[in-house]
Amino acid sequence: MTVNDDVFTNWKTREEIAESMIPLIGRLHRERDVTVLLHSRSLVNKSVVSILKTHRFARQIAGEELSVTETLPFLQALTALDLGPSQIDIGMLAATYRDDERGLSVEEFTAEAVAGATGANKIDRREPRDVVLYGFGRIGRLLARLLIEKAGSGNGLRLRAIVVRKGAGETGEDLVKRASLLRRDSIHGQFQGTITVDEANGRIVANGNEIQVIYSDDPTTVDYTAYGIKNAVLIDNTGKWRDREGLSKHLRPGVEKVVLTAPGKGDVPNVVHGVNHDMIKPDEQIISCASCTTNAIVPPLKAMADEYGVVRGHVETVHSFTNDQNLLDNYHKSERRGRSAPLNMVITETGAASAVAKALPDLGAKITGSSIRVPVPDVSIAILNLQLGREASRQEVLDHLREVSLTSPLKRQIDFISAPDAVSSDFIGSRHASIVDAGATKVDGDNAILYLWYDNEFGYSCQVIRVVQYVSGAEYPTYPAPAPVVV
């Protein structure tokens, strides 16, 4: 047998193993509300090739081989346990098992590592929390995709309605157009599933989820209980109201909490999941998820501040153009944003730097910021220039950020890539708040410059959903538990 034959045989073997993993992952998700992860990346509803690529990507981050031959035994061990709703990382199980010197079997080690999700400790399955989307634009439709995806196990969150402006709509044609925009997206691709339109009842049906379309120009006129909606979390992705007074208009019958997908003003708490989401008071009804850029810079900033201290910093964001800019030169209330977005780099403002103080009140360091819009439709990069509290080497900083991305409570927020030829389109669809580009990172004494990619549409939407899960009590624990970030 030639070397090439060996490689091919090895690939076919791993392909067969990955194929055998799919029904196990699906059954755990549907029957027990368990999401199987591999170094924080979900394996639910993934293809054979996707599972193999996720293993390969995890190897590139961790710097060591991780094969399906290693992770399959842990997945098989999970199916034999009486598990409750949870997220279980088989990549972390395999990695920690390597270092365990007690001589435990895979079954014994797995049972011990996920003990909090079994027996008397396990969480009972609960009725899903109703969710309403107020607005159905770029972020609204991505949130819909994520909510529909999460409804597959019958857990956590259930999208019940979307509210859109009156206009040419309230007709079957309007429903068809909105369903079509949900089905196909020029950036994020096809919706994974089936979508039909129920014109008689004014609904879009996606993967069996019936979503009522409500037409209204005034949130104070909607009674959500008339549609069977109760105790809902309403996500306002219009950005029309940003203060407590305006957002309180959404607190109508059937709605219990309001989550804003833009920076909040006044006393509205600005939340970055993974950093300060645990400061949300149980009785808080109005919450902001801040901006996509704030979500991109705050987790790595916290990781650096906790380890090295930060004296001061500046963030320059190179941001994709958005719907609030013009395709061609035309009138705009903002001077530069009136110029053609796909033809120009446009200097603009960002409130992300000032939002850092709200998310990290103990930081103390002054962070300034500026921004340039560029002619790409999605994925941005934040260049975070920091003066550290102590000197460090480039390798030390990279090792720290790699470890944070793999094992810390920030691993869902921070990703890490070492590919030398990475470009913006590589990160379309990333579920992380930001991705550290190792090759671009610069460190000189107490000065560190981090290049942080982020999908300002999809990655941000994932952060919003995490906040909604948290305030709904549907954010399930992860096993093995991530190591705390050392302060």
From TrEMBL:
SMART domains: Gp_dh_N (SM00846). Keywords: Oxidoreductase. Residues 129-292 form the Glyceraldehyde 3-phosphate dehydrogenase NAD(P) binding domain. SUPFAM superfamilies: Glyceraldehyde-3-phosphate dehydrogenase-like, C-terminal domain, NAD(P)-binding Rossmann-fold domains. Belongs to the glyceraldehyde-3-phosphate dehydrogenase family. GO terms for molecular function: NAD binding; oxidoreductase activity, acting on the aldehyde or oxo group of donors, NAD or NADP as acceptor. The lineage of its organism: Bacteria, Bacillati, Actinomycetota, Actinomycetes, Kitasatosporales. Pfam families: Gp_dh_C, Gp_dh_N. The keyword Oxidoreductase applies. This is Glyceraldehyde-3-phosphate dehydrogenase. Signal peptide: none annotated. It comes from the Bacteria. CDD domains: GAPDH_I_N.
